[in-house]
Amino acid sequence: MDQILPKLLWMNTAIAFWVMWAGTVTAQEVEVQGCGVAGEFCVLGETLESPEPVGNESSDPTENRLDPINQYGDNNSLGQVTNVSQLRDVQPSDWAYTALRSLIERYGILTGYRDRTFRGNRSMTRYEFAAGLRQALDQIQSLIARGRDVPPADLATLEQLTNEFVLELSLLRGDVDALTARTRELELTQFSTTTQLDGEVIIGAAGIVSKDDTVTTLGHRTRLNLDTSFTGQDLLRTRLQAEGLGRLERRTGTPEGELSFTGASDSDLEIDALLYRFPIGNQTQVVIAANAGAADDFTDTINPYLDGDGASGAVSRFATRAPIYYLVSGAGVGVRHAVNDHLEVSLGYLAGNGGNPEPGNGLFDGAYGALAQVKFEIRDRATIGLTYVNAYNQDWQVGSQDTNLVNQLDLPVVTNSVNLAASIQLNPRFVVGGWAGYTTANVIDEGDANLWYWALTLALPDFGKTGNLGGFIIGMEPKVTGSDGLKNLGIDDPSTSLHLEAFYQYKLTDNITITPGVIWLTAPDHNSDNDDTFIGTIRTTLQF
User: Fold this and answer.
1) What pLDDT score was predicted for residue 213?
2) 172 — phi, psi (to 5°)?
3) Which tens digit of pLDDT belongs to each residue from 86-96?
4) Does domain 275-543 have CATH number 2.40.160.10?
């Protein structure tokens, strides 16, 4: 039995391919219960289409030449015949007939037409038997897999039948080899079976009003993401990006109120984010960023609905996520580990100029941000996160000019920051949240500064219509609240500025959203000598 089974399993596969090939050469028709139409080939409940059944009237004059063949059919409905002794075309005295009858009656494998005929010539009769033999092999293989004992006599019969079809099987072997070679060729010439292209285009208009000063801009941010998976669980992302909407800071004179989708005013299409994410076990994800990595690549920013990375949600950088996350960007590694269903830990290190070998740059000799975060979820409705970041020469590009010390002083700065964030979903359409953060900054050999920021947020999913989103944010962008030795360098925020923001994201189609938004800055740049500034925007996002 051990010697017979391997042969049978091999023959099973080979015969299946042979029968499919033979079906393209000439018609062969065997019907099972439920087919009900002559001209269909049916085995064990499966139906393969073949020429129209004989005996039906047709306007095609060529069918008149088929009358000698059509005499084997009739216009009666066809039904199932299970007992092989009723089949006429194969004589009961044939050995193949006797062997097939024994198997069919024992296992209910093959069926025929109601008129008890196999339709075809002698050469096709062998292939009809090959189809039955294939079903016998499948049936017995299934029984063995379920642990049922199969009589040795039946196994011996199957072996004899497969030997009887050795010529057909040898020809089929060549067809299978050719098919395998062709399949291999297709696999080698394909671009990638696991790469998906996603596109995102933001067309944004922005207007700035401050006393007698007004300006309107119109531009874009275009992203093409090539997402590749090698295992089905990993992700290689190659992002191409072009920007055409400059930072508003150039006109307002402060990073406060900066839009979440602005950047260079006329950049070419170039590689932006380049990262690889893969799992370790079932609870850990590792991210390796070679370029333009960000904190949200490996950690939760705890601002659901509002953090859409510029394409959706809040329209400003400050309202998109807590400023502490902007201190971590560049090239490096991040790890996200789920301790259990409620507790998650994130760790990461990104260098701002990790690919630059010049002095004062590189992965460990230049600007960097190192993050550690603990997040706790309560019944999928409330999330609390505590975040710590140690950074060197990294600015967050929000808040007042004086809080962006690296850009303001062009001196080395070390910062230590903590942030507490929370989000509570009171019901499916009402989410409140917020954050508060504190930073100590040391300007090496010059002095120290203390910085604070906070925000309260409200998100209204499906507001007015399913898929829409309303949002309100009020907060204080980063402000210098105290310093030691830096006032002589002009580092001082004498007043307090408030950031007030409202937006409504309207879902036009599954791929297009339109988001009008407004930002009101009181005492911009934390200086009451500055007139209040209003920023209005209309963001259209197209995703494909």
Assistant:
1) 82
2) -65, -35
3) 444 545 666 66
4) yes
